[in-house]
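Hi all, posting the design record for the shared folder.

TITLE: backbone redesign
STEP: 1 of 1
STRUCTURE INPUT:
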Protein backbone atom coordinates (compact mmCIF):
# COMPACT_ATOMS: atom_id res chain seq x y z
CA UNK A 1 0.00 0.00 0.00
CA UNK A 2 1.31 3.42 -1.01
CA UNK A 3 0.26 6.60 0.77
CA UNK A 4 -0.41 9.43 -1.70
CA UNK A 5 1.55 12.15 0.06
CA UNK A 6 -0.19 15.40 -0.91
CA UNK A 7 2.05 17.40 1.38
CA UNK A 8 5.21 16.26 -0.42
CA UNK A 9 3.76 16.63 -3.94
CA UNK A 10 2.31 20.06 -3.14
CA UNK A 11 5.75 21.18 -1.94
CA UNK A 12 7.30 19.86 -5.17
CA UNK A 13 4.77 21.91 -7.18
CA UNK A 14 5.43 25.01 -5.06
CA UNK A 15 9.18 24.58 -5.67
CA UNK A 16 8.54 24.38 -9.43
CA UNK A 17 6.37 27.52 -9.33
CA UNK A 18 9.02 29.33 -7.23
CA UNK A 19 11.58 28.68 -9.97
CA UNK A 20 9.28 30.00 -12.70
CA UNK A 21 8.49 33.13 -10.66
CA UNK A 22 12.19 33.76 -9.94
CA UNK A 23 12.84 33.56 -13.70
CA UNK A 24 9.96 35.99 -14.38
CA UNK A 25 11.41 38.45 -11.89
CA UNK A 26 14.89 38.06 -13.39
CA UNK A 27 13.39 38.89 -16.81
CA UNK A 28 11.74 42.01 -15.37
CA UNK A 29 8.24 40.56 -15.88
CA UNK A 30 5.29 41.28 -13.60
CA UNK A 31 4.99 38.93 -10.60
CA UNK A 32 1.75 36.87 -10.42
CA UNK A 33 -0.74 38.47 -8.03
CA UNK A 34 -3.56 36.57 -6.30
CA UNK A 35 -6.33 38.29 -4.35
CA UNK A 36 -8.70 36.60 -1.91
CA UNK A 37 -12.05 38.07 -0.90
CA UNK A 38 -13.47 37.00 2.43
CA UNK A 39 -16.80 38.14 3.85
CA UNK A 40 -17.34 37.91 7.61
CA UNK A 41 -15.37 36.20 10.36
CA UNK A 42 -15.87 32.47 9.75
CA UNK A 43 -12.99 30.73 11.56
CA UNK A 44 -12.42 27.94 9.02
CA UNK A 45 -12.56 30.39 6.09
CA UNK A 46 -10.05 32.73 7.76
CA UNK A 47 -7.72 29.76 8.32
CA UNK A 48 -7.99 28.67 4.67
CA UNK A 49 -7.43 32.18 3.34
CA UNK A 50 -4.48 32.67 5.71
CA UNK A 51 -2.83 29.53 4.37
CA UNK A 52 -3.40 30.74 0.78
CA UNK A 53 -1.74 34.07 1.55
CA UNK A 54 1.24 32.28 3.17
CA UNK A 55 1.51 29.98 0.14
CA UNK A 56 1.71 33.03 -2.14
CA UNK A 57 4.61 34.40 -0.11
CA UNK A 58 6.33 31.00 -0.24
CA UNK A 59 6.41 30.95 -4.08
CA UNK A 60 7.12 34.66 -4.55
CA UNK A 61 3.63 35.80 -5.61
CA UNK A 62 2.07 39.09 -4.61
CA UNK A 63 -1.14 38.64 -2.65
CA UNK A 64 -3.98 40.85 -1.45
CA UNK A 65 -6.48 39.92 1.22
CA UNK A 66 -9.79 41.75 0.87
CA UNK A 67 -11.66 41.41 4.19
CA UNK A 68 -15.25 42.61 4.12
CA UNK A 69 -17.82 42.79 6.94
CA UNK A 70 -20.56 40.16 7.32
CA UNK A 71 -23.12 43.00 6.91
CA UNK A 72 -21.94 44.01 3.42
CA UNK A 73 -24.74 44.29 0.87
CA UNK A 74 -24.75 42.21 -2.28
CA UNK A 75 -24.40 45.40 -4.33
CA UNK A 76 -21.29 46.47 -2.42
CA UNK A 77 -19.72 43.03 -2.83
CA UNK A 78 -20.45 43.03 -6.58
CA UNK A 79 -18.87 46.49 -6.83
CA UNK A 80 -15.73 45.15 -5.12
CA UNK A 81 -15.59 42.21 -7.56
CA UNK A 82 -15.95 44.62 -10.48
CA UNK A 83 -13.01 46.59 -9.08
CA UNK A 84 -10.84 43.44 -8.95
CA UNK A 85 -11.95 42.44 -12.47
CA UNK A 86 -10.67 45.78 -13.77
CA UNK A 87 -7.48 45.99 -11.71
CA UNK A 88 -4.56 45.20 -14.05
CA UNK A 89 -2.37 44.38 -11.03
CA UNK A 90 -4.55 41.40 -10.03
CA UNK A 91 -4.05 38.29 -12.19
CA UNK A 92 -6.54 36.06 -10.41
CA UNK A 93 -8.82 36.17 -7.41
CA UNK A 94 -11.04 33.93 -5.35
CA UNK A 95 -14.18 34.61 -3.34
CA UNK A 96 -14.01 32.42 -0.23
CA UNK A 97 -17.17 30.37 0.28
CA UNK A 98 -19.53 30.08 2.05
CA UNK A 99 -20.92 33.60 1.79
CA UNK A 100 -23.48 35.01 4.26
CA UNK A 101 -27.07 33.88 3.68
CA UNK A 102 -28.30 37.26 2.40
CA UNK A 103 -25.90 37.11 -0.55
CA UNK A 104 -26.68 35.17 -3.74
CA UNK A 105 -23.54 33.02 -4.21
CA UNK A 106 -24.37 32.20 -7.83
CA UNK A 107 -24.68 35.89 -8.72
CA UNK A 108 -21.33 36.62 -7.10
CA UNK A 109 -19.52 33.78 -8.89
CA UNK A 110 -21.06 34.89 -12.20
CA UNK A 111 -19.67 38.38 -11.63
CA UNK A 112 -16.05 37.16 -11.55
CA UNK A 113 -14.19 37.69 -14.84
CA UNK A 114 -13.65 34.13 -16.21
CA UNK A 115 -10.05 35.12 -17.11
CA UNK A 116 -9.36 35.81 -13.42
CA UNK A 117 -11.48 32.96 -12.03
CA UNK A 118 -8.61 30.85 -10.65
CA UNK A 119 -11.10 28.79 -8.60
CA UNK A 120 -12.60 27.55 -11.90
CA UNK A 121 -16.17 28.05 -10.63
CA UNK A 122 -17.49 30.37 -13.36
CA UNK A 123 -19.97 28.62 -15.72
CA UNK A 124 -17.83 29.64 -18.70
CA UNK A 125 -14.82 27.83 -17.24
CA UNK A 126 -16.91 24.86 -16.12
CA UNK A 127 -18.38 24.59 -19.63
CA UNK A 128 -14.92 24.71 -21.19
CA UNK A 129 -13.81 21.95 -18.81
CA UNK A 130 -16.69 19.76 -20.00
CA UNK A 131 -15.73 20.45 -23.63
CA UNK A 132 -12.00 19.67 -23.16
CA UNK A 133 -11.03 23.29 -23.84
CA UNK A 134 -8.21 25.23 -22.18
CA UNK A 135 -9.57 26.62 -18.92
CA UNK A 136 -9.05 26.83 -15.16
CA UNK A 137 -9.73 23.46 -13.53
CA UNK A 138 -11.18 23.79 -9.99
CA UNK A 139 -8.25 23.41 -7.60
CA UNK A 140 -9.34 20.27 -5.71
CA UNK A 141 -10.11 18.11 -8.79
CA UNK A 142 -6.95 19.51 -10.41
CA UNK A 143 -4.99 18.42 -7.34
CA UNK A 144 -6.46 14.90 -7.48
CA UNK A 145 -5.50 14.58 -11.16
CA UNK A 146 -1.99 15.78 -10.38
CA UNK A 147 -1.60 13.22 -7.56
CA UNK A 148 -2.68 10.42 -9.90
CA UNK A 149 -0.30 11.69 -12.58
CA UNK A 150 2.74 12.08 -10.33
CA UNK A 151 2.27 8.70 -8.69
CA UNK A 152 1.86 7.22 -12.18
CA UNK A 153 -1.45 5.53 -11.32
CA UNK A 154 -2.95 3.95 -14.43
CA UNK A 155 -6.57 5.11 -14.83
CA UNK A 156 -7.14 3.98 -18.43
CA UNK A 157 -10.05 1.54 -18.73
CA UNK A 158 -10.51 1.53 -14.95
CA UNK A 159 -13.86 1.86 -13.22
CA UNK A 160 -13.91 5.05 -11.13
CA UNK A 161 -16.71 5.64 -8.63
CA UNK A 162 -17.13 9.23 -7.45
CA UNK A 163 -19.16 9.77 -4.27
CA UNK A 164 -20.69 13.25 -4.14
CA UNK A 165 -22.00 15.50 -6.93
CA UNK A 166 -20.93 19.00 -5.80
CA UNK A 167 -19.93 21.55 -8.44
CA UNK A 168 -16.64 22.04 -6.61
CA UNK A 169 -15.39 18.41 -6.60
CA UNK A 170 -17.79 15.61 -7.57
CA UNK A 171 -19.03 16.83 -10.94
CA UNK A 172 -15.73 18.21 -12.26
CA UNK A 173 -13.67 15.17 -11.20
CA UNK A 174 -16.20 12.85 -12.87
CA UNK A 175 -15.69 14.81 -16.11
CA UNK A 176 -11.89 14.86 -15.78
CA UNK A 177 -11.61 11.13 -15.07
CA UNK A 178 -13.60 10.31 -18.21
CA UNK A 179 -11.61 12.63 -20.49
CA UNK A 180 -9.11 11.29 -23.02
CA UNK A 181 -5.56 10.97 -21.76
CA UNK A 182 -3.70 9.99 -18.63
CA UNK A 183 -4.96 10.41 -15.98
CA UNK A 184 -8.39 9.85 -17.50
CA UNK A 185 -9.88 7.35 -19.98
CA UNK A 186 -11.77 5.93 -17.03
CA UNK A 187 -15.35 4.63 -16.94
CA UNK A 188 -17.01 6.84 -14.34
CA UNK A 189 -20.03 6.26 -12.10
CA UNK A 190 -21.19 9.35 -10.19
CA UNK A 191 -22.96 8.39 -6.96
CA UNK A 192 -24.57 10.55 -4.28
CA UNK A 193 -26.89 10.58 -1.26
CA UNK A 194 -29.83 9.27 -3.32
CA UNK A 195 -27.94 6.35 -4.90
CA UNK A 196 -29.53 3.02 -4.00
CA UNK A 197 -27.10 0.44 -2.60
CA UNK A 198 -24.06 2.65 -3.03
CA UNK A 199 -21.77 -0.10 -1.72
CA UNK A 200 -22.59 -2.27 -4.75
CA UNK A 201 -20.84 0.38 -6.89
CA UNK A 202 -17.84 0.99 -4.65
CA UNK A 203 -17.18 -2.75 -4.21
CA UNK A 204 -16.57 -3.05 -7.95
CA UNK A 205 -14.56 0.16 -8.32
CA UNK A 206 -10.87 0.24 -9.23
CA UNK A 207 -10.73 3.86 -8.04
CA UNK A 208 -12.99 5.48 -5.42
CA UNK A 209 -13.02 9.27 -5.03
CA UNK A 210 -15.11 10.29 -2.03
CA UNK A 211 -16.21 13.92 -1.61
CA UNK A 212 -19.22 13.48 0.63
CA UNK A 213 -18.21 15.15 3.90
CA UNK A 214 -19.45 12.28 6.09
CA UNK A 215 -16.74 11.07 8.51
CA UNK A 216 -15.65 7.43 8.07
CA UNK A 217 -18.43 6.80 5.55
CA UNK A 218 -16.38 4.47 3.31
CA UNK A 219 -15.63 1.29 5.25
CA UNK A 220 -13.38 -1.66 4.37
CA UNK A 221 -16.29 -3.90 3.36
CA UNK A 222 -17.26 -1.31 0.71
CA UNK A 223 -14.01 -1.54 -1.28
CA UNK A 224 -12.26 -4.29 -3.16
CA UNK A 225 -8.69 -5.47 -2.64
CA UNK A 226 -6.19 -3.26 -4.45
CA UNK A 227 -8.49 -0.29 -5.03
CA UNK A 228 -7.13 3.27 -5.29
CA UNK A 229 -8.80 5.45 -2.63
CA UNK A 230 -8.93 9.26 -2.85
CA UNK A 231 -10.46 10.88 0.24
CA UNK A 232 -11.58 14.48 -0.30
CA UNK A 233 -13.65 14.72 2.89
CA UNK A 234 -12.53 17.09 5.67
CA UNK A 235 -14.77 17.17 8.74
CA UNK A 236 -14.03 18.52 12.20
CA UNK A 237 -15.15 15.82 14.62
CA UNK A 238 -15.39 16.90 18.31
CA UNK A 239 -12.84 15.07 20.46
CA UNK A 240 -12.22 16.18 24.05
CA UNK A 241 -9.15 13.96 24.28
CA UNK A 242 -7.13 16.41 22.16
CA UNK A 243 -6.17 19.99 23.04
CA UNK A 244 -7.95 21.55 20.03
CA UNK A 245 -11.18 19.85 21.02
CA UNK A 246 -11.61 18.25 17.57
CA UNK A 247 -9.89 15.99 15.07
CA UNK A 248 -9.90 16.32 11.28
CA UNK A 249 -11.52 13.24 9.76
CA UNK A 250 -12.01 12.17 6.16
CA UNK A 251 -14.81 10.24 4.43
CA UNK A 252 -12.76 7.04 4.60
CA UNK A 253 -12.22 4.73 7.57
CA UNK A 254 -8.49 5.07 6.96
CA UNK A 255 -7.12 2.37 9.28
CA UNK A 256 -9.30 -0.42 7.92
CA UNK A 257 -9.47 0.66 4.26
CA UNK A 258 -5.71 1.23 3.98
CA UNK A 259 -5.19 -2.50 4.57
CA UNK A 260 -7.03 -3.25 1.32
CA UNK A 261 -6.02 -0.26 -0.83
CA UNK A 262 -3.12 -0.16 -3.28
CA UNK A 263 -2.94 3.65 -2.98
CA UNK A 264 -4.70 5.90 -0.46
CA UNK A 265 -4.71 9.58 0.51
CA UNK A 266 -4.46 10.40 4.21
CA UNK A 267 -6.58 13.10 5.90
CA UNK A 268 -5.07 15.52 6.65
CA UNK A 269 -2.07 15.64 4.31
CA UNK A 270 -3.58 14.16 1.16
CA UNK A 271 -5.86 16.14 -1.15
CA UNK A 272 -5.97 19.25 1.10
CA UNK A 273 -2.43 20.56 0.48
CA UNK A 274 -2.84 19.86 -3.25
CA UNK A 275 -5.80 22.25 -3.45
CA UNK A 276 -3.68 25.25 -2.46
CA UNK A 277 -0.81 24.20 -4.75
CA UNK A 278 -3.16 24.01 -7.74
CA UNK A 279 -4.71 27.38 -6.89
CA UNK A 280 -1.18 28.80 -7.18
CA UNK A 281 -0.72 26.90 -10.46
CA UNK A 282 -3.95 28.45 -11.80
CA UNK A 283 -2.78 31.92 -10.76
CA UNK A 284 0.49 31.40 -12.62
CA UNK A 285 -1.52 30.27 -15.68
CA UNK A 286 -3.72 33.40 -15.41
CA UNK A 287 -0.58 35.56 -15.36
CA UNK A 288 0.94 33.73 -18.36
CA UNK A 289 -2.30 33.82 -20.37
CA UNK A 290 -2.78 37.54 -19.78
CA UNK A 291 0.58 38.17 -21.49
CA UNK A 292 -0.39 36.31 -24.68
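Okay, here is what came back for every position:
SEQUENCE:
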Amino acid sequence: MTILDGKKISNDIKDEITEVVAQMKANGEKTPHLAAVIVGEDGASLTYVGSKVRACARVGFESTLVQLPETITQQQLLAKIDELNNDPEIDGFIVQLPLPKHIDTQKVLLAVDPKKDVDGFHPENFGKLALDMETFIPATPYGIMELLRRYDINTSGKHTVVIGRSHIVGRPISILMSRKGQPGDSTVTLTHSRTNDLASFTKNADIVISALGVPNFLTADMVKQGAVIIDVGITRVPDNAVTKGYVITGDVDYQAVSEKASFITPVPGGVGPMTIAMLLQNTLLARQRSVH
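COMMENT: The mean pLDDT is 96.
Let me know if anyone wants the other runs.
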